[in-house]
Amino acid sequence: MVSITARLRRTAVGVTPPRETPDHDREITMPSLEITVSSPAREVLVDISQRIQGAVAESDPAFSGMVNVFVPHTTAGVTVNEGADPSVARDIVEGLTRIVPREAGYRHSEGNSDAHIKASLIGCHVAVPAERGRLRLGTWQSIYLAEFDGPRARRIWIILQPA
Questions:
Q1: Partner of 124 at 20 to 30 A CA spacing, among 16, 20, 67, 74?
Q2: What pLDDT was estimated at residue 67?
Q3: Could you tell me the residue ranges of all domains in the chain?
Q4: Cα separation of 40 and 56, whole Å?
Q5: What is the pTM of this model?
Q6: pLDDT in the model for residue 27
Q7: What is the model's pLDDT at position 29?
Q8: CB atoms < 10 A from the CB of 42, how many?
Q9: 44, 42, 146: which is closest to 102 by C-alpha?
């Protein structure tokens, strides 16, 4: 079972206007959301498309721009791939396992080096366009949390970048 919660927060992105402006100490903020996903297995792709869509629509039903999805973990990632056929997600996990086996004499002492490598290959960020509160994914596309060291709860940050 996948458990997902979402909450909206306004986050300063650490950008300040140039010093020449009179309000140089003002921080610029953009909408930021966070959802938590509990992964059911050590290695699995969890379709989070509807949760991302729901969080965007709830926070700003008229939002148009880029939806940045970021996973702040070193043994999990995020990717966009086919969502119509669940065997594609399984094939991706199995393919990565063949490329990066769990036991291969790694030096990292925690026993999860393969998870770090797989997460690096997948990446920790995707950007998806949105128009009027709706994600603009392709017909077959879904957004996946790529878990490589579960099961565990993972945070996913969603930053809305207006057009």
A1: 16
A2: 98
A3: 4-8+30-105+120-162
A4: 25
A5: 0.82
A6: 58
A7: 65
A8: 17
A9: 42
Domain spanning 4-8+30-105+120-162: CATH superfamily: YjbQ-like (2.60.120.460)
Quick one: CA torsion of 81, 47, 52, 133, rounded to 10 degrees?
60
Structure tokens at 110: 């925690």
Q: Which two tokens stand for residue 69?
A: 């999805």
C-alpha Rg value of the chain to the nearest Å = 18
The residues of the chain scoring below 70 in pLDDT are 1-30
Q: Which two tokens stand for residue 144?
A: 């996946």
Instruction: Give the span between the Cα atoms of 1 and 40, in whole angstroms.
Output: 6
Could you tell me the sign of the dihedral formed by the alpha carbons of 73, 160, 57, 85, in that order?
A: negative
CA–CA separation, 80 and 136 (whole Å): 12
β partners of residue 38: 153
Q: Which residues contact 11 (CB under 8 A, 6 or more apart)?
A: 29, 30, 32, 159
